[in-house]
Design a protein that fits this description.
Layout: E1 10-13, H1 21-28, E2 33-36, H2 39-43, H3 46-56, E3 62-64, H4 73-85, E4 90-95, H5 97-112, E5 132-136, E6 148-152, E7 159-163, E8 171-174, H6 184-203, H7 209-222, H8 226-231, H9 236-256, H10 260-272, H11 276-291, H12 296-305, H13 315-332, H14 338-341, H15 345-361, H16 374-385
Parallel strand pairs: 1-8, 2-3, 2-4, 4-5, 5-8
Antiparallel strand pairs: 6-7
The structure holds nicotinamide-adenine-dinucleotide and fe (ii) ion.
Length: 386
């Protein structure tokens, strides 16, 4: 089997990497970048810390700070108009997955026109957009290295997956110091998102030896450090391992795809506005338990990689340990069930079939080692409810 692997051509990784932004833009030939971020990053001064040295170096950078969590087609429309009218030739995306996904989507629309839904998987993106330099501030989505953007259609509430080689950022600046300000809940949610990426990439039917190596390395960095990162947000070793783990997991799933957890998680995020990592966490133990028979050996490897099973333990019991370890992790990180989160039971029940159909349409469940039908997914949603 030949695996096609795409990663950003430039990655600056480590404490203080963000100071390389000017040099990275110069290497890419970007003269007039638009900084895309969210109101928190602007108000906390993070945007200015990036913009000031650029402006001092004579780089005429603009600012779009109106991105929203779980970016919407409405916001992409506003941003794209600004991008087109401002004569920009590149973007710097600063923030969690939401600002990075927003910048990627703006680049697609600016280059191709039309509506975001025109480029929904499996539709291609004809023309690659302008370069995006991604600067993540959460150790979570891996969007800084992936070929995906996830945008919610304001008209239908659908969380659309958009994919293509042109969505891989031209550069990623991965500086764990930017994550030191993440509060515990955000750290937990984004950290479980990254762990889910690693596990799903490893068990995906599209996995390859290269993505396996990235996924196992990611699990080995995230699992031992996620509790400490939440308990002591100032822990530099925890932050450094989590950030690198999230990026490695991003490389793994960008090239091997995610699977059933993400497929089922996106509709929960879209309909009930549950943060992305949290909706993954709500589903991860039950979906993993259901999927075990499809890839016992692979799940057993995951158990060993996160330290939940001994190296010599047999596959069947090691895989069971993985499920138990994921349940303990949810308990330790206070992950609520959908019911505890306050979701209206009648609305949840009424939307289950629609959510399962949207999950199926996204293509992600087909990558799972055990492939579900709509009825299986409805049962898994019900099992995860309370
Ligand atoms: N493109 C991909 O490959 C990919 C993969 C997974 C998820 N996603 C998408 O990414 C989005 C979620 O991204 P996210 O989980 O990183 O969260 P986010 O970007 O939505 O941010 C959540 C909140 O955290 C705040 N925040 C971010 N960094 C902070 C910091 N350092 N300190 C304090 N607060 C901070 C933000 O201001 C915001 O209020 C979802 O839309 C999801 O679908 C994309
Ligand atoms: Fe994710």
């Amino acid at each position: 089997m030949v695996a096609t692997i795409l990663v950003p051509p430039i990655m600056e990784i480590g404490a203080g990497a963000v100071q390389r932004l000017g040099a990275v833009l110069a290497r890419l030939g970007v003269r007039r970048p638009l900084l895309v971020t969210d109101p928190f990053m602007r108000d906390a001064g993070h945007a200015d810390r990036l913009l000031a040295p650029l402006r001092a170096a004579g780089i005429d950078a603009g600012l779009f700070a109106d991105t929203v969590p779980d970016p919407t087609t409405d916001v992409i429309g506003v941003g794209t108009a600004l991008l087109r009218d401002g004569g920009y030739d590149g973007m710097v995306a600063l923030g969690g997955g939401s600002p990075i996904d927003t910048a990627k989507a703006m680049a697609v629309l600016a280059a191709n026109g039309g509506q975001m839904r025109d480029y929904k998987v499996p539709n291609p993106i004809p023309t690659p957009g302008m370069p995006v330099v991604a600067v993540p501030t959460t150790a979570g989505t891996g969007s800084e290295v992936t070929r995906f953007t996830v945008i919610t259609d304001t008209q239908t509430d659908e969380k659309m997956l958009i994919a293509g080689p042109g969505l891989v950022p031209a550069a990623a600046i991965i500086d764990f110091e930017l994550t030191l300000s993440c509060p515990p809940r955000l750290t937990a949610d984004t950290g479980i998102d990254a762990l889910t990426h690693a596990i799903e990439a490893y068990v995906s039917v599209k996995a390859s030896p290269f993505t396996d190596a990235m996924a196992i390395a990611a699990m080995g960095r995230i699992a031992p450090w996620i509790r400490e990162a939440c308990a002591d947000p100032s822990s530099r070793p925890a932050r450094e391992n989590m950030m690198l783990g999230a990026t490695l997991a991003g490389i793994a799933f960008s090239n091997a795809s995610v699977a059933l957890v993400h497929g089922m998680s996106r509709p929960i995020g879209a309909f009930f506005h549950v943060p992305h990592g949290l909706s993954n966490a709500m589903l991860l133990p039950a979906v993993t338990a259901w999927s075990l028979p499809g890839a016992i050996t692979r799940y057993a490897d995951c158990a060993r990689a996160i330290g939940a099973a001994d190296p010599g333990q047999d596959d069947e019991s090691a895989a069971q340990e993985l499920v138990q370890a994921l349940r303990r992790l949810n308990a330790d990180l206070n992950v609520p069930t959908p019911q505890e989160y306050g979701i209206d039971p009648a609305r949840w029940e009424g939307l289950l079939v629609t959510m399962a159909e949207q999950a199926l349409a996204s293509g992600s469940p087909a990558n799972n080692p055990r492939v579900p039908g709509v009825a299986d997914m409805v049962a898994l949603y019900r099992e995860s409810w309370g």
